[in-house]
Amino acid sequence: MISVAILGAGNVATHLFKAFSKKEGVFVSQWYNRHIDTLASYKNEVDVIDDLSQLKDADVYIMAVSDDVIANLSSQLPFENRLVVHTSGSVSVYDIDKKHKRGVLYPLQTFSKNAEIDFANVPICIETINKACYPLLKQLARSLGSPTKRVNSDQRRVLHLAAVFVNNFTNQLYRIGHEITESEGAEFDLLKPLILETALKVQNHSPFTAQTGPAKRHDKKTIKKHLKALENPHHKNIYELLTESIQHTHGRKKL
Amino acid sequence: MISVAILGAGNVATHLFKAFSKKEGVFVSQWYNRHIDTLASYKNEVDVIDDLSQLKDADVYIMAVSDDVIANLSSQLPFENRLVVHTSGSVSVYDIDKKHKRGVLYPLQTFSKNAEIDFANVPICIETINKACYPLLKQLARSLGSPTKRVNSDQRRVLHLAAVFVNNFTNQLYRIGHEITESEGAEFDLLKPLILETALKVQNHSPFTAQTGPAKRHDKKTIKKHLKALENPHHKNIYELLTESIQHTHGRKKL
């Protein structure tokens, strides 16, 4: 049985708590947050605290807090030589106070406040400074049913960066699609099967192979029509830049 | 029973033929292509022809051909006053020779050569000049199990444009994610659940509501780290432009 203390009360912390609570082999011994009120609804399930000095011995302390808080919180922990990890994609493992055994459990997924999450769909990237810390973190991630991958700092950094492209930026393209369709009273709903199919395609094919459309075909006529139709200058810039990017990837002449 | 003649042998034509062949209520009477060899493997299933003068009477003639060919092919058809449609998102219905009854069946989906397609996931946008042509086209699309939507020219035009954003441009963001992860020997596979979850999220939430990440949070520190990490100037430009776009959509200060 691995004992875990969770620090923080955001989306990741909450999803981790709920998932651990349902799984065998893991026991959340304490849940800390600066504002204890946020944890009030869990007080019958777990020892909720707002005072770091109350933290008891645990196998792993998981700091699922804002990037900016990680370094400071780790220094305030009133013990040393225990395994302390953060869950951030972009913060260095060395930002954790060096009095601890240090590691990272980076769940590569987007967490919503309300939607239930199946950790089988959450790859967990594990980074440790000391190799000896790795097996326990792997066992912990596996207990959630998550695929795990050992990564180094550079790999975690590029995964986080790539995640911004495939998640936040992609979602913004959906948003632009929404704006464009609504501008003529067309229904965004009609695009939803296409959005899903585009994401499904790259589950089994490389994005390079999956590419289609006017940019790849160098279909100047359609590209010209589209640029003319785009009224919003931001949308026009994005259209031009991504068309160029596709043509750069797939060779031949420029826009 | 609706009789259909298909013209063209690309992805859309082939998927339509296969789908119609399996469905009740529709009969593909002939399949035309300029190069008959392309259709050789279907000659036992349908009357394949490469000579327009051999076209017999049919309820609908579907031109599933390249945008550039539509106008010319429609003029060459050796009959008039019959229902002739194209399947393009961006070509005007008026590009079809006015000797015909004219319409558009625009399937709003990405078609791959090999992957089987379920037309239940292919919304078909229907446009007609003459209202009287609409019911037959709707019945035809419904026979495939497709959701249908009557659209006007402007709506079809913006749907096609929006499809480029949510399909081609999104796929290029996946490609960039692939390049970025591989640059450090990290695995693109780790991003696949996130890609799928991002697409699933907007099936039930607006892209506006679904947005998360450093751009929306105005997390300058992370944005700066990311821009520093991006070596490819194209990727850097795309990062900056889409970050700005998110911040424009979600208010407050600029990058």
UniProtKB/TrEMBL annotation, chains A, B:
Pyrroline-5-carboxylate reductase catalytic N-terminal domain mapped to chain residues: 4-86
Domain DUF2520 positions: 122-246
UniProt cross-references to InterPro entries, sorted A to Z: 6-PGluconate_DH-like_C_sf, DUF2520, NAD(P)-bd_dom_sf, P5C_Rdtase_cat_N, TM1727-like_C_sf
Top-level taxon of the source organism: Bacteria
Name of the protein this chain belongs to: Rossmann-like and DUF2520 domain-containing protein
Organism this protein belongs to: Mariniflexile ostreae
